[in-house]
# Entry
Amino acid sequence: MTQTMSQPCENPSTPEAMAHAAALGAALPVLTTERLTLRAPTQSDFEAYAAIACGPRGVGMGGPMTRSDAWYDYASMVGNWLLRGHGLWSVEETASGAHLGFVVIGFEPGDPHHELGYMFNEGAEGKGFAVEAARAARDYAQSTLNVPVLDSYIFAGNHRSIALATRLGAEHVGDISYPEDDEPSRIYRHPCPAEV
Amino acid sequence: MKITVDIPVIETEDLILREYRDSDFEAFAAFGTSQRAAYVGGPHSRWDSWRAFMAGIGHWALRGYGMWMIEHRDSRQVAGRVGMILNDGWDEPELGWHIYDGFEGKGFAYQAALAAREHAARHFGLDGVISYIDATNTRSLRLADRLGAKHERDGTVVGTPCQVWRHPRIGEAAA
# Structure
């Protein structure tokens, strides 16, 4: 996190507004795994999201995005919870409280099915955190939300993401083109609960 | 399952300010994809409209305040949006209003903006707020004036030039 990048909007505004935001956030489910806590994203987590979406890692998300685009993207995945009952989680290492990244159960225009997405910062790599968090979100989508089909849509060049999907047991079942993207995405379909 | 949250409902003489519903999206997208959205960074694609719709909802959860959908009480139709917005890169939360086709010229924007401004001051701790207004948006400038706001300075919002109007604090409101 760089202090110089920070914007006024990332700071708490008024006690009244923050109490209301906390109450809304408390309505979102918290998932825990052996090492991780998946919890409601907050406005101060946006800096972590922007660091991923506006940097080289944003390429896999259709970016790198401008900060403005990253904000709409972030807020929309949070809003998804209220309208659709699923959305974005912040992923923390439980022991240290370190913010590692995000996982999302999304459904965006052009998606044929619900999507499992994951965005992690560089420091979180190589420790199996992403697979642990993604598995928890997948299990929640399938067992609690009863989502019938769960995909990850991944650019062919995003080897890290493909490796993670494969590790989760997902299979490349086809390709899909989104009007806003220059190249098609691969559809990785996650196994049903009975197959896991 | 659906997460239910407490977005306050405000009733005025003709309008109900309330949470977003699935069924509101067509009216939202009709505005966002039309020339009417030129003063709010549009027109947008339908995809962007969807993202903006969802982001409008997420704003409530992230900030604890946001824009309400305006429902016209008699027709039960969605007449626009009003409320407090703070997007990335903005200086401070602004009071914004979008009135949809067919609902202009009836004083609804005034009624909605007044109710939202008062609620924000009393319940969100946001008092004496600003509105960002395009210098050529004469209808909005007129409304800001009618609401008792004053042209404070010329500024920019994420690189786009605009006027910054300052609303009276709650005790000062003439209305």
About this structure: Chain A has one domain: 31-195.
